[in-house]
Design goal:
- The protein is α+β, with helices and mostly antiparallel strands and 276 residues long.
- Among the domains are: 114 residues, Orthogonal Bundle (434 Repressor (Amino-terminal Domain)), CATH 1.10.260; 77 residues, Orthogonal Bundle (Arc Repressor Mutant, subunit A).
- It contains 13 helices and seven strands.
- The chain has a four-stranded mixed beta sheet, with helices on both faces. A three-stranded antiparallel beta sheet has the order 4-6-5.
- α2 packs across α3.
- About 7% of the residues have low confidence.
Length: 276
């Protein structure tokens, strides 16, 4: 069932006219009519107030409940896919949708629509099965959600040499200088390593250390080419969103303690097992 059909169904159940629903959420009856005919979609910031006015939930508006085979992520994707084909708008709308979905699901009774375009905020939600962290700071928006592994967090957090290697590499000033240079390049950018050293001003003796670190993060792929009869190593750059996300997360976590901050935590078990 489509979103518009659900809005009409719950409006009829609530014995509300299109005009009455519009008054409750601050739009015209014509806007409600367009939603119900699926000729337009409600702004994401209105979804909590629509659900509240209809005495239901955002999940239910999208036809999602625990017995359905629907996936909420699939529902959100379909909603986003119907938005204008503008990357910046999609990112903002997705963040808004996620924020209000979490607020509606975990903070019952506080479904007043919020215009998040005018102020900064962060949300952190922790419970035993999942962790979510989001920031809507204009210069560094980010939303991360991690599902707890079936075997527990030990499987990815304890004695993990690859994690240690990653953070060791990212903590090296010369490696970070090279990363910043790479972040200015487009997908598939090809170069010889001396070009990176030249442009960044890094010393020649740091080549192997920096190269090894970048290859280990899988940002680069090494290939052999022949130039004037001599074999050379060429490198192709493939951007990975994870590293910039870590960068943004670290900055926001350490330094952005102003603005709106909402946290809810239901972590009952320790993250790691005590081996003693």
């Amino acid at each position: 069932m489509k979103l518009g059909e659900n809005i009409r169904m719950y409006r009829n159940k609530a014995n509300l006219t299109q005009e009455q629903l519009g008054e409750k959420v601050g739009v015209s009856a014509q806007a409600v009519s367009k939603w119900e005919s699926d000729s337009s979609l409600p702004d994401t910031s209105l979804l909590p107030s629509i659900a509240d006015a209809l005495s239901t939930t955002i999940d239910a508006l999208f036809g999602y409940n625990q017995t359905d085979r629907h996936s909420m992520l699939e529902t959100l994707y379909r909603y986003q896919d119907s938005q204008p084909d503008d990357h910046a708008s999609r990112v903002e709308n997705t963040w808004t949708m996620l924020f209000h979905s979490f607020m509606g699901a975990l903070w019952a009774g506080s479904s007043t629509p919020v215009d998040i375009s005018t102020w900064t905020q962060s949300v952190q939600i922790n419970w035993d099965e999942c962790f979510a962290q989001g920031w809507n700071y204009p210069e560094s928006p980010l939303f991360v959600m991690l599902k707890k592994p079936e075997e527990g967090w030990d499987t990815v957090l304890q004695d993990n040499e690859r994690i240690r290697q990653l953070f060791t590499a990212l903590g090296d000033k010369e490696v970070w200088t090279a990363l910043q240079w790479l972040f200015t390049k487009k997908y598939g950018y090809r170069f010889l390593f001396p070009v990176l050293l030249r442009d960044t001003g890094l010393p020649a003796e740091s080549e192997e250390k920096v190269k090894t670190a970048l290859l280990r993060t899988r940002l680069l792929w090494e290939k052999s080419i022949t130039i004037d009869g001599k074999e050379e190593k060429m490198y192709e750059y493939y951007p990975r969103h994870g590293i910039p996300a870590l960068w943004v997360m670290a900055y926001n976590y350490l330094y952005r303690d102003t603005g709106y901050n909402w946290q809810q935590s239901y972590v009952l078990d320790p993250f790691l097992k005590d081996e003693q």
